[in-house]
Automatic annotation (TrEMBL):
Chain coiled-coil ranges: none
Active site (record annotation): 186 (proton acceptor)
Keywords tagged on the record: Pyridoxal phosphate
NCBIfam families: ECA_wecE, PRK11706.1
Protein name: dTDP-4-amino-4,6-dideoxygalactose transaminase
N6-(pyridoxal phosphate)lysine carried by residues: 186
GO function term, MF aspect, one: pyridoxal phosphate binding
Highest taxon listed in the record's lineage: Bacteria
An annotated GO BP: polysaccharide biosynthetic process
Entry's family note: Belongs to the DegT/DnrJ/EryC1 family.
């Protein structure tokens, strides 16, 4: 049986967890949390990182930080995970869904400007499959209309964007804020887990307070204030040291994990290119400005029927391939709140995108053989 995903363990996860447990400090913001945060800040140039219990939590923190309130509008793609939208809906925002690009599930940057109104507060680009959205265009719109940009970088660890200025920047370091996921289906994992990256420094102090249940506890432990108390809204967003210890074992091996995934991705791509062309399927497109972090390998089938047949054919060989998002603008929950605009490319990816199994220890040749049979 080849599952769709299998979490990869580097071997030192339980060693570091044991170390955390033995040290007697297993609540949040201890040694391992700080090691992980510093690792990300140093490697990717984020001004400040805070580990969270999920990417969903990091998105919710972002919504609180930019003071989303009843009636604010937030623009995002419809082809995304529910958390991208839920984080803002929880604070009363109206979601204005944009269509995907014709050849890629990412938000079509050319469709955003007409959706901006006096109520628009933020744009939330989602870097689908870890491939960058057109950030120059999105940041220009944000500057022109005074909006915040929150990158949903859940899938985008260790991926980059090269702007018009020729500078290569890590995804998650470009918007005002960004959210990452370490859910077991992502490249770097801790079971459940996530991180808020803060690039606009005005948010750093308040982010720490929101993270610590609305208290200035972090400043207290640094000796900056002599007592701590309730100073703002907040919640319990920080993970325990046990989770951070697991994550640290992954981070020590990030290069190895990434190179293995890229090797698998390239094998899929070169092996399937001819077959896909003959059968009317498209392979992933990586724009010139983007790198590929090999988060996901997908096919774009020519129809829903073709996709269903391919899923069945793989299942016959005990191989699990899965489709992905169901357009949020057509969801049971949001259907009636959507303004009725058709989003044809979102629909196309809902019907035709198929994700192939992809994990460190996969026997990829078996998958490729069965697809081309
Ligand atoms: C995985 C994912 C999330 C949610 O991540 P969690 O850590 O499970 O909360 C949000 N957005 C996108 C695009 C994702 O892929």
């Amino acid at each position: 049986m080849i599952p769709f995903n299998k979490p990869y363990l580097t071997g030192k996860e339980t060693y570091y967890i044991e170390d955390a447990v033995r040290s007697g400090k297993i609540s949040g913001n201890g040694k391992y949390t700080q090691k992980c945060q510093k690792f990300f800040e140093d490697l990717y140039g984020f001004s400040k990182c805070l580990l969270t219990t999920s990417c969903t939590d990091a998105l919710e923190m972002a919504a609180i930080l930019i003071n989303i309130k009843e009636g604010d509008e937030v623009i995002m793609p419809s082809y995304t995970f529910v958390s991208t939208a839920n984080a803002f809906v929880l604070r009363g925002a109206k979601i204005v869904f944009a269509d995907s690009r014709p050849e890629h599930p990412n938000i079509n940057e050319d469709t955003i400007e007409p959706l901006i109104t006096s109520k628009t507060k933020a744009i939330v680009p989602v870097h689908y499959a870890g491939v960058a959205c057109n950030m120059d265009k999105i940041m220009e719109l944000a500057a022109k209309y005074n909006l915040y940009v929150i990158e949903d970088a859940a899938q985008a660890i260790d991926s980059f964007y090269t702007g018009r200025d020729g500078v290569k920047r890590a995804l998650g370091s470009i918007g005002h804020l960004a959210a990452f996921s370490f859910h077991e289906t992502k490249n770097i994992i801790s079971g459940e887990g996530g991180m808020l990256a803060i690039n606009d420094r005005q948010f750093i102090d308040r982010a720490e307070i929101i993270w610590e249940k609305g208290t200035n506890r972090s400043a207290f432990f640094r000796g900056e204030v002599n007592k701590y108390g309730w100073v703002d809204v907040g919640s319990s967003f920080l993970p325990s040291e046990i989770i951070a210890a697991f994550l640290w074992a992954q981070l020590e091996n990030i290069e190895d994990i990434q190179s293995r995934r890229k090797q698998l991705w390239d094998t899929y791509f070169t092996s399937l290119a001819g077959w896909a062309a003959e059968n009317g399927l498209a392979l992933p497109v990586i724009p010139e400005y983007a790198t590929n972090n090999a988060h996901m390998f997908y096919l774009i089938c020519s129809s829903l029927g073709q996709r269903s047949r391919l899923i069945t054919k793989l299942k016959e060989a005990d191989i699990l391939a899965v489709f992905h998002y169901i357009s949020l603008h057509k969801s049971d929950f949001y259907n009636n709140s959507h303004d009725g605009r058709e989003l044809p490319y979102t629909e196309k990816f809902t019907d035709c995108l198929l994700r192939l199994p992809m994990y460190y220890e996969i026997h990829i040749d078996r998958v490729i053989k069965q697809i081309m049979r």
